[in-house]
């Protein structure tokens, strides 16, 4: 299936080929309620042996046998080794061995679903496995009360004032406003959900009101059942103690009764799913209930939600300052340590505790060790606190294909990505990847950033890389990176095709991706720069020269719209080198010419530009291609304008002759404008006007419908130089008119540099015409436009000319 991007849902949005002309969706496509089934389903086929061909003939494993005994029996019946079952199920051989030996007695349901699918178990045997696993999640012995031991309120709680205030306001809503059944605090691992919730609850509870706390064990091997949650709460209510009901209905009724009589402050920590907390939530009483979870618990009704992210720079420094003694830190240490800890409270607390616990250790020394990415997770351990362990709880809860995606997206370079880029790493269906990205977001392993984009924080990425290296190995990572690189560069070529004559932009490329219009293509190029630019460099490094040359050529005219990018010289240099490696002189001349333009725009280095122009001429002459000879002499003419008039005009005439032989109208228009600029510089303004008028009249005759980008650039350049000629001839009104046309054209490009330059031409015309105020307005607009882009030499030179013009104006 081909995929097309659309601008309807933000900067752009991914749509399938079959839907791109219909009603565009505005958000992620999610699975319907009927789709909530295991991702892994058993393939139809042989069950065990040829003689056992009907489900009823398969012996049921005794329900009283342990989970490990059942699994071993099924595996042997299927004639599989541990390694064989691991390959079929996606569950590691070590995990399978742990279950069979009883080390792991209550694995996650998704793990069992994958194992059952790998064994091709019929429903009765599947259910027997699930039933035995559920039986292991029995109510803890009465003496085991760890789930109801509340953590202490953190004495050095720092930051989160806005979030805590927001939670407090929700818990103390005015009586005229229906209060929420609960406030759900969500966020990634280690972000401080429990401490923030406890802080907020402590601030709003009555002086003598007890906080009822239950750890729901959401990401442990034995998450509490709804009944266990209620029993743990009721045991903490004065007067009930251990006399708690043994059935869910009775527990719910008793909880409602005691909550109505004496509203409580309740903290349900670490919820795995909605069913754990739903029986606790009631709006018939005035409980102040907080729930923390890595998941959003989207199925809960009548609740409010607060999502926590990393601390701010200042909050992070304040927290570390409370943890690390002054004599163990220097100025600037805490800010860098916060950055290396990703501003995650758990990571910073661990780092601070480790430093403080070793008086001889300086913060700078610990930072030096943290800078090595492979050491970072290993070092962020202090006592029973560990960042890696916090992430592992969420990772271990992933279904195998989602875990594969989590590991695969570590090969993505950019800070944010969309579902299509993620799908390219694993070659999976985009809609399936979207649902899995939602799951990773729900678990806090990635962050949704709006516009259907996602981000993986640095510490989580390090964790994912360790899992990737352990599970997949380097060969798989290289394969994924190559697949992503191929997809990105194929998409980039399709985007650039909208601006490059001779290409068919409305057809999907080799990757199956296309763009419905030029606007969407341009948005994709700019937004995904952090992805395709590393891919382009990598393609050149690994010798994919044909791809590099083709993609760079597709971006040639688009570069005129994005002059401020700042990397065109490097990109076209890579392409010229790739063309040389291919032994293609025509392509080498083409891309050497593009480097001339890039030198003049990005570095203003005329010496290097002239050297590149002469190399382009030599390569073009060797190729014998008239079109490339025309362009090579065009660039030589341009570079020599202010250096050698005679050689420049000779190069211009040769360029014109070659373009005529090649029947290249675009090139002819460009060289005529360049020659007109030369005539102006030489003082022959009337002849320059005649040439420019000829170019513009010819452009009107040859434009069929919407002008191409090349024709628009010709119109812009011609009107700018025409304005300059009219100024020199004293024809000021005509100069203003020509410059106004240039400004109008430049504004359609949306390029700060183009707009500023056109405004400078008009400001000059206004000034000589005596309209100083209009000139000042245009200069101010031009400088504002330049402030919107990156600082490159062309910007600096343009700004200097504007400021010089401003100084000549009377106050």
Layout of SSEs?
Elements: E1 3-6, E2 13-16, H1 67-77, H2 82-89, H3 93-100, H4 109-119, H5 123-135, H6 161-171, E3 182-186, H7 193-204, E4 211-215, H8 226-235, H9 248-261, E5 265-269, H10 274-277, E6 288-293, E7 303-307, H11 313-323, H12 333-340, H13 345-356, H14 363-370, H15 373-379, E8 381-382, E9 385-386, H16 387-395, H17 400-408, E10 417-418, H18 419-426, H19 430-442, E11 447-450, E12 453-455, H20 458-471, H21 473-496, E13 513-514, H22 518-527, H23 529-541, H24 545-554, H25 568-582, H26 585-603, H27 606-623, H28 626-639, H29 645-662, H30 665-681, H31 685-702, H32 709-729, H33 732-749, H34 752-769, H35 772-786, H36 793-808
Parallel strand pairs: 1-13, 3-6, 3-7, 4-5, 5-6
Antiparallel strand pairs: 1-2, 8-9, 10-12, 11-12
How is this structure best described in words?
This protein has 811 residues and is of the alpha/beta class. The protein is built from 36 helices and 13 strands. A five-stranded parallel beta sheet has the order 4-5-6-3-7, with helices on both faces. It has a three-stranded mixed beta sheet with strand order 2-1-13. Strand 5, helix 10 and strand 6 (288-293) form a beta-alpha-beta unit. The longest helix is centred in the middle third of the chain and has 24 residues, at 473-496. The relative contact order is 0.05. Residues 8-64 and 137-147 have low confidence and may be disordered.
Summarize this, please?
The chain has 811 residues and is of the alpha/beta class. The chain has a 5-stranded parallel β-sheet with strand order 4-5-6-3-7, sandwiched between helices. Helix 21 runs antiparallel to helix 22 (518-527) and helix 28 runs parallel beside helix 30.
